[in-house]
Amino acid sequence: MPDIASICVYCGSSHGTDPRHRADAARFGRQIGEACLELVYGGGDIGLMGTVADAAMEAGGRVTGVIPTDLKRAEVAHAGLDELIVVGSMHERKRVMFERADAFVTLPGGVGTLDETLEIITWRQLGLHGKPIVIVDSGGYWQPLIALIEHTIAAGFTGPALREMFTIVGDVDDVLPAIARIPAPAVPDRPERT
Predict the structure, then answer these.
(1) Cα separations in angstroms, 160 against 30, 90, 98, 130, 169
(2) Rounded Cα gap, residues 102 and 119, in angstroms
(3) What's the Cα-to-Cα distance from 28 to each of 45, 57, 77, 104, rounded to whole Å?
(4) How sure is the predictor about 184, in pLDDT bands with cuts at 50, 70 and 90?
């Protein structure tokens, strides 16, 4: 992956109820580190966030966390990172994570993870970037999101081209190969104003 040096991972600040999600976060963190990639993530030391960061560092990867001041205590900012960027707001967090990453990967998580994922897909739909986006549908976790996206397409609120703006894989072992196969993206033309 010559054009990919850093991967932003969106994931939960808790471990959830399915132990496979924690195991997947650890496995993917190791894969990032072993591939000599930089992990960019939300900066927390808890939940799947802490798991993916710890695994990436243990495998020799560089890890950059981005955390808002207000969440520094709630998400227990990770003290052992290569770089911890403290920002003023969630909006700034998402912007800095976007700027620091060459690709985006979504693991299971809650509404914050959902928000980050939908925003990065929307930015791609609007032509603001052409970076790869991969959703890991481990154990069918993201099937409700996929169904909702399909519903918006069927109802005529979203164009079918949206399906081409992200990739869905069933296992973390498929993420890096999927990113390597994603062709240089064609950023959609912006609609002309009349």
Answers:
(1) 35, 30, 24, 17, 19
(2) 16
(3) 16, 12, 20, 13
(4) low
- Give the residue among 6, 73, 16 at the shortest CA–CA distance from 41: 6
Q: Write down the residue that tokens 């403290």 correspond to.
A: 86
Average pLDDT over residues 89-115: 97
Question: 61 near 41, Cβ under 8 Å?
Answer: no
Q: What are phi and psi of 167, to 5 degrees?
A: -120, 140
The count of other CB atoms within 10 Å of the CB of residue 168 is: 18
Specify the residue for token string 């603001």: 128
* Structural domains in the chain plus CATH codes: 6-178 (3.40.50.450)
Residue showing tokens 């040096």: 5
The 10s digit of each residue's pLDDT in 23-43 is: 999 999 999 999 999 999 999
What are the tens digits of pLDDT across the range 116-165? Answer: 999 999 999 999 999 999 999 999 999 999 999 999 999 999 999 999 99
